[in-house]
């Protein structure tokens, strides 16, 4: 069985993949990727907190102002 980008096993043909998706949907088998993606998200959150701790308050405010300006420019146009 071929391996996906994260090393998970998955069928090579479309029908086998469809059967696997059906089994995941009905709960016959567990989806491996859910645990991998949640672990990656946890690491991402930890990195963001660490980055914010190392920044000066002025730099954080500057980034927040730029983000707010970007959000407001999207909604009006």
Description:
- It is a single chain.
- This protein is mainly α and 77 residues long.
- It has a domain of 45 residues.
- Helix content is 71%, strand content 0%.
- It contains three helices and no strands.
- The longest helix is centred in the middle third of the chain and has 22 residues.
- The model has no long low-confidence stretch (mean pLDDT 81).
How would you sum up this structure in a few lines?
By secondary structure, this protein is mostly helical. The chain has a domain at 32-76.
Oligomeric state as shown: single chain
Largest sheet, in brief, is:
none
First-residue to last-residue Cα separation: 49 Å
Query: What is the averaged pLDDT score?
Result: 81
- Going by helix content, strand content and strand pairing, the class is mainly alpha
List the helices and strands and how they pair.
Layout: H1 14-26, H2 33-54, H3 57-76
Protein name: RNA-binding protein
Organism: Sphingomonas suaedae
